[in-house]
Amino acid sequence: MAYKSVFTALTSFDETSPALAFSAATAEAQDAHLEVLCVGVDRTPNTYFEIGSNAVVMHAAIETAHESANHIQAAVRAYLQSSLLRWDVINSIAPIASLGRTVATQARFADLAIVGLPYGTPTQTDDCSILEGFLFEADCPTVVVPEGAAVARPQSIVIGWNESTEALRAIKAAIPYLQKAKHIHIAIIDPPETGPERSDPGGALAVYLSRHGIRCDINVMTRSGQKVSERLSQYVTETGSDLLVMGGYGHSRFREAVLGGATRDMLEHSKVPVMMAH
To answer: 119 burial class (0-12, 13-18, 19+ CB within 10 angstroms)?
Structure first.
């Protein structure tokens, strides 16, 4: 198994962008095709349309978005021009309220999507929308990359296992990473006493992975007064791991899927890339 199509979306260009650098490195490591969507965002406040904005204002906003998309596209092409990757760069424009839906339309056909860490100081609103579009609308496994995390060939991986469908989907999607890593750690925090795996937490998952040639160890631990996200982050550090695999959780609000508090906490604490699926 391998990823054959790696996708990322940008609303601005920065040569040090973790999403672009990690995407290129992942495509190289997986011998995959890299696709970059450059989005010019129409940031016109909704109030303009609510009160009946005139055509001049609307046209100017669209023109600005087109110029931004073209600028990003040119910069990304220059960035990738000397690489040996198979790649293509396309552009689009989107109202800020429809950004997630716009990127999801393209990401549906990718094996793996990559986005920069959307939480922290300051909060990256665009990346929040892009991440939610990847996970909830495109249904595409996604790696969230914090600043400074450029390891595209992880050698030690922590799996956050809680018996959920979301976590299992993330694990299945991560098999190309897991098969190439040297150390796999299944982390189970406060397993339920009445769950289906109560007598052997993580055992069925370990058997499943072994059939893919993946050897792992199972670690059952308690929160010890910490949040699950904090305990999991601590364990990633203790094991010296460079990738965390977990489920991505969310709930519906006015038809927009948004990441739940536990997932957001995990992303805010993580110092390594986090791979999620929903």
So the answer is: buried
